[in-house]
Amino acid sequence: MQAKLRIGLAEQTLLAALGQAAVYSEKHSTPPPNIQSPLEEAVKIVKQAYSVLPVYDKIVPALLSDGVWNLPNTCSFTLGVPVGPMLAKPTKGVSEIVQKFQNTEYTCEFKYDGERAQIHYLEDGSVEIYSRNAERNTGKFPDVVAAVSRLKKSSVGSFVLDCELVAYDREKQKILPFQVLSTRARKNVVMSDIKVNVCIYAFDMLYLNGRPLIQEELKVRRECLYESFEEEAGFFKFASAITSNDIDEIQKFLDAAVDGSCEGLIIKTMNKDATYEPSKRSLNWLKLKKDYMDSIGDSLDLVPIAAFHGRGKRTGVYGAFLLACYDNNNEEYQSICKIGTGFSEAVLEERSASLRSKVIPKPKSYYRYAETITPDVWFEPTEVWEVKAADLTISPVHRAAIGIIDPDKGISLRFPRLVRVREDKTPEQASSSEQVAEMYSSQSHNQSNNQDDNEDD
DNA sequence: GTTGTCTGCCCC
DNA sequence: ATTCTGC
DNA sequence: GCAGAATGGGCAGACAAC
């Protein structure tokens, strides 16, 4: 049994406890008047302080020496220490956005498919780059360090930049897929060894020339951003943005984003509730991707052919399933992905019960999958599930459409989740290998997709 | 040296 | 990453 | 509405096995 007692999982709970403890042991000052619930207020203060300075070695001593009520003064944003990146909430369509933000000025930006980065530039010219999870990435991106140092304007002596690092082909002047970005080396990278270039797509500024901007409105922060850097193709660009509240215009912008190899849009208010909220998935930022929308985006009908026992709250039911598409030519089921999300507890219980009676001792001879995949149980092919995905990718392990796109690699799904059970389909009516290959080819990265160069007339 | 397997306060 | 659920 | 807990693909690195 490996019980990893590790702080960080129930972080919010721990911070709450810390805040309450601080109130009970408070001996420095009394809570400000006008406070209804000192306990709740203290929790807020501690959480706020931590989000801006996530260092227990600073927070706890500050609590002990100067008390909770002074914490906003004793623990504030510090250059060189990463703050939690502001997150966005999924949204189902343009109409939901227009409705939620009516009477409010808001902006839409491209959501680039790369790696989030928070770049700190200190007065002494040193640079630190942090990942979405506050990992120190500086050694992975010496090219980014050089680019920001070169492209900041001379008036800029310090800054914190929020941006997306995206793989980029500077000859063809186009964005490359996330899968290409992830092939970059991760440690002690030297400039001359870099094979995959990145372009910085900047969208926010949290600090400039000694001035914290977190509590400023986006309008102000963006102004600071635009005035602090020179753009340069293939190296540093501001995220494409429009300010509009017109449904059609936003819809067109979303299409443009997808055409431009982006995942979708991020929508942000400019003035109202427009401060930078570290780590919070508050309503302030929304994300819109095609695969969130009903009846649009890639949807496939797939057959569960195996499963894995669940853990934790999934103990006693299956926790994940291996899915396959059907290859009509070879009359075989080819693995395409595992799936473990999108099930309500009731549906998961149902499916587990139903498939438990379809367990077979060995995989069928007509199941095609990698030997490295070792499910706990195999099934007779009996059900068809509708599954949604953000993307189709060339896979090192799965076998869907093998031989069509690539001679010996199959296709898999990015972010697969269950939509519903297709009671009306038999396994042989599942998505075919040809259909999978076709869906892969028609993605915007891949060569001949654009025009209506398609079949019949 | 090569190949295989597993892990990551991983990235998405 | 996505999704669901208890509070 | 938020925090937490289930779960996905896939990469470089680390390390074990050969």
UniProtKB/TrEMBL annotation:
What sequence ranges are listed for the domain ATP-dependent DNA ligase family profile?
Answer: 191-327
Against CDD domains, the record matches this protein to: Adenylation_DNA_ligase_I_Euk, OBF_DNA_ligase_I
What's any GO biological process attached to this entry? Answer: DNA biosynthetic process
- Segments for region (Disordered): 422-457
One GO cellular component term of this record is:
mitochondrion
* TM ranges: none
Enzyme Commission (EC) number: 6.5.1.1
Q: Name one Pfam family in it.
A: DNA_ligase_A_M
Tell where it localizes. Nucleus
Q: Which residues form a coiled coil?
A: none
Organism superkingdom: Eukaryota
PROSITE patterns on file: DNA_LIGASE_A1, DNA_LIGASE_A2, DNA_LIGASE_A3
Reactions catalysed, semicolon-separated, are: ATP + (deoxyribonucleotide)n-3'-hydroxyl + 5'-phospho-(deoxyribonucleotide)m = (deoxyribonucleotide)n+m + AMP + diphosphate
Alphabetical UniProt keywords: ATP-binding, Cell cycle, Cell division, DNA damage, DNA recombination, DNA repair, DNA replication, Ligase, Nucleotide-binding, Nucleus
Q: Which InterPro entries match?
A: ATP-dep_DNA_ligase, DNA_ligase_ATP-dep, DNA_ligase_ATP-dep_C, DNA_ligase_ATP-dep_cent, DNA_ligase_ATP-dep_CS, DNA_ligase_N_sf, NA-bd_OB-fold
Q: Is DNA damage found in the keyword set?
A: yes
Task: Give the GO molecular function terms.
Answer: ATP binding; DNA binding; DNA ligase (ATP) activity
Q: Which family does it belong to?
A: Belongs to the ATP-dependent DNA ligase family.
Family matches, as PANTHER family = DNA LIGASE 1, DNA LIGASE 1/3 FAMILY MEMBER
Q: What is this protein called?
A: DNA ligase
Source organism of the structure = Trema orientale
